[in-house]
Amino acid sequence: MTPPRRCALRVLAEKVGMRAPSPYNHAANREELRTLILTQGFFEMGDALWEAVAVDKSPASLAAAYRRHSTSLPHHYRLGTTGPLDRAALPAGLEEWSGAPFGLVTDSPVDAQAFFAALHGLAILEIDGRFPPGTPIDDLWARTAELY
After folding, report:
1. pTM (whole model) above 0.85
2. Which of 22, 43, 105, 107 would bridge with 18, disulfide CB 3.0–4.6 Å?
3. Residue 86 DSSP label
4. Cα–Cα separations (whole angstroms), residue 72 to 48, 78, 98
5. Contact present, 118 and 144 (Cβ < 8 Å)
6. CA 114, 69, 24: angle at the middle one, nearest 5?
């Protein structure tokens, strides 16, 4: 059962150390608040990925950064990667900028999207605890990077 919207906002506010009405001091409504959180998430993921490829321009480095970031902020990650995305509400070019490191470690735009999709799948499965017990999750991440 889904909690009432005001209850969900209260829980969100508590998680970030605010009182329930406080988020609306920064946004006019729920959708604007969601867009602000999404925008921050794209910037944070992009920063993590760009930092990784600046140090080591390899699929393994990118995969490790993607895993660290997505699993350290699972609710933020899920908000940014599931459900519809109103791209027009995001700052122009943000989505492309945050995903561009995938193009730096792969051979084609199709490979870049496939690599992203594979890492996203691994991240969601790990976040949700959906791998069977004993699965060598570290090896799955490493092998996926090796494929690219």
Report:
1. no
2. 22
3. -
4. 12, 11, 17
5. yes
6. 110
Q: Scanning the structure block, which residue is given the tokens 């993921």?
A: 45
Helices (H), the chain: 5-15, 30-55, 59-72, 74-81, 94-104, 109-127, 137-146
pLDDT in tens, the chain (148 residues): 333 344 455 555 565 555 555 555 666 777 888 888 899 999 999 999 999 999 999 999 999 999 999 999 998 899 889 888 999 999 999 999 999 999 999 999 999 999 999 999 999 999 999 999 999 999 999 999 999 9
Which pair of structure tokens corresponds to residue 124? 């969601």
**Cα 103–chain centre separation:** 17
The Cα angle at residue 32 between residues 29 and 36, in degrees rounded to 5: 135
Give the other-Cβ count within 10 Å of 69's Cβ.
Answer: 20
- What is the rounded distance in angstroms from the CA atom of residue 120 to the CA atom of residue 116? 6
Count how many residues are written for the chain: 148
CATH topology of domain 34-146: Tetracycline Repressor; domain 2 (1.10.357)
Residue ranges per structural domain of the chain: 34-146
